[in-house]
Structures are given as structure tokens and as C-alpha cells.
Specification:
Number of helices: 13
Structural class: mainly alpha
Low-confidence stretches: 286-305
Radius of gyration: 36 Å
Number of domains: 4
Largest sheet: none
Oligomer: single chain
Helix content: 55-70%
Length: 305
């Protein structure tokens, strides 16, 4: 006869039988598998696209296809949750199949554009560097092919319109990296390069301002020499006449910016100096500048102090 005080412990012992423990362990493992499927699907539908060559939506769709293949290889008829999950995944794939195919084709064209521009550079280190004219010709041919391919397809048409607009606006500025050795192809690396040059300018000059770098930084890239002899050899390779002519162009290009700096610093003095210069030209009998000779309509109000 069992003591009444030991009866609760006897019932608890009977409840935790070996068969019940095995069943509880199986239920725990099944729940872990279901949670992993939930996590995989949640990750597939929330892929981010922060990098140009990483399209989160397309990656997520391919991941969802892999999840569906795994679900179809399992026997889910006895599991109501996995059965409903398989149907929902199949429905999501079917509803977005056409859009995913269009995005995949657009991504293929995007890779072709990058290959035309030889980007990323690490993939073309062993290939000969093309000229600027060669890349321009290849890009124009690619745009023509993309235009014919994008007819009637909204996603490809958006890619073509955006690429065409940017190529017309910035195409000339994008290809200098093929003519200037050492000039990076993307803006982040260009900013990093000029940042290092700016730090070097502060170190050798001892001044906080880096205005000389802004004026001549694009020339410093050409003079990346390992020694003073090599730098002197590069400088001697430039004819004096070409240097003087380019120096004149540099001064002319910097004139508007310097004028704006003086104007922002002291507007009254700057404008007075400009007026005195105009009066001096009139006194020597030269023809007045067209800017000052432009007639002013009587309807325009005149402001005087």
C-alpha cells in the first residue's frame, strides 16, 4: 500500500514516461523546424537593396523558390501548418512569376552595362584597358539594343530611360578614368583619393586650408611618382608652351569663382571696383562692354539710394 504522501510523486513519475519524453522531444524539434521555415520566409520577403549589384527582391524570390522546393520534398499532408504554408508559398510564387522574370532580364541588362564600363575594376585587372572612345562606342551600341528590347516592357523601359538620360548628361565625365591612370571609376573611391591628397596637402603645407588642392588636385593624380627623379622626369615631359597655355586656361576658369569669393566677402568694394574698371575703360575711349551697354526698359523700376 502506497503512503498517501507519496501518491503525487507517483503520479508525476507516471506522467514523465519514456514514451512521453520522446513525443515531447519530437514536438519540440518539429516546432523548431516550423520556426526556421517562418524565419526563412520572413527573410525572403524583407530583403534590402543597398548595393547596386544586389537586388533584394530578385534574391528574395529565388530564395522563396528554394523554400518551395524544400517544402515539396517533404511529406506535409499530416502537418496542417506546413500544408497551408506550402500553398501560400506556391501562390506567392505564381502571382509574382512574370514580374520576377522581367526583373531577372533587367538585372541581366544591368550586368551588361557594368561589363561595358569595366566595373568592378577587380574583375578586369588582367584585361587590356580600353580607350575612352571604345567604351563610348560600346555603350551607344548597347543603348540601341536595349531600346529595341525594352519596347512594351515597363521595367526595361524605366531602365533605358534612366540610363539614356544620365548618359546624355554625364557620359563625358564618366569616361575620364579610362584616359587618366590611377583615377578610380566610382565616386566613393574618388572622394577617398582626394581625401588622402587633402591630408597630404595639410601635412606638407602646415595650413588648414586646402584650396591649392582644389585648384590643382586633378593634376596631382597624374604625378604619382615613387621618387623625386621620377617626378622630375614626368614634369620635363610636358612642353613649356603647353604648360603656359593650360595655365592661362586654368586662370580663366578660376576667374568666376574668385570673383564670387570677393563678392561674398565685401560686396560693396567688389562692385565699386568693377564700376571703376568700367569708367576707366570709357575714359580711354574703348567701346563699352555689351553687359553695360544693354538698354534698360523704362518699365523696369529703378532703385536708388
Amino acid at each position: 500500500m502506497v503512503c498517501p504522501k507519496l501518491q503525487p510523486y507517483r503520479r508525476r513519475t507516471l506522467f514523465f514516461s519514456p514514451a512521453a519524453s520522446v513525443q515531447a522531444e519530437r514536438a519540440k524539434e518539429q516546432k523548431e523546424i516550423e520556426d526556421q521555415f517562418r524565419l526563412a520566409i520572413r527573410d525572403a520577403v524583407n530583403r534590402a537593396s543597398r548595393k547596386p549589384f544586389y537586388w533584394g527582391g530578385l534574391k528574395g524570390y529565388r530564395q522563396l523558390e528554394s523554400i518551395a522546393q524544400a517544402l515539396h520534398t517533404m511529406s506535409v499532408t499530416e502537418n496542417a501548418f506546413l500544408l497551408r504554408l506550402t500553398r501560400q508559398v506556391d501562390r506567392a510564387l505564381e502571382n509574382n512569376r512574370r514580374l520576377a522574370a522581367t526583373i531577372d532580364k533587367t538585372y541581366t541588362w544591368f550586368l551588361r552595362i557594368a561589363a561595358c564600363l569595366r566595373y568592378p575594376p577587380r574583375s578586369y585587372r588582367e584585361s587590356p584597358t580600353p580607350t575612352r572612345q571604345q567604351v563610348r562606342q560600346e555603350m551607344e551600341e548597347l543603348l540601341q539594343n536595349l531600346k529595341s528590347e525594352a519596347y512594351g516592357q515597363p521595367v526595361l523601359s524605366s531602365l533605358y530611360s534612366g540610363l539614356q538620360r544620365r548618359w546624355v548628361l554625364f557620359g563625358d565625365e564618366l569616361l575620364y578614368c579610362f584616359n587618366v591612370p590611377g583615377l578610380p571609376q566610382d565616386n566613393l573611391k574618388v572622394e577617398s583619393l582626394f581625401g588622402r591628397l587633402r591630408c597630404h596637402q595639410r601635412r606638407i603645407s602646415g595650413r588648414k586650408s586646402t584650396q591649392p588642392l582644389r585648384d590643382f588636385g586633378h593634376y596631382q593624380i597624374l604625378f604619382l611618382a615613387e621618387s623625386e627623379e621620377q617626378l622630375l622626369e614626368q614634369l620635363r615631359g610636358v612642353p613649356v608652351e603647353d604648360y603656359q597655355e593650360l595655365r592661362k586656361y586654368q586662370t580663366q576658369a578660376e576667374a568666376p569663382r574668385k570673383f564670387l569669393v570677393r563678392l561674398h566677402h565685401d560686396p560693396a568694394k567688389t562692385m565699386q571696383n568693377l564700376a571703376n574698371k568700367y569708367i576707366a575703360h570709357l575714359q580711354v575711349g574703348q567701346a563699352p562692354n555689351l553687359l553695360f551697354a544693354t538698354p534698360v526698359s523704362e518699365k523696369v523700376p529703378q532703385y536708388t539710394t
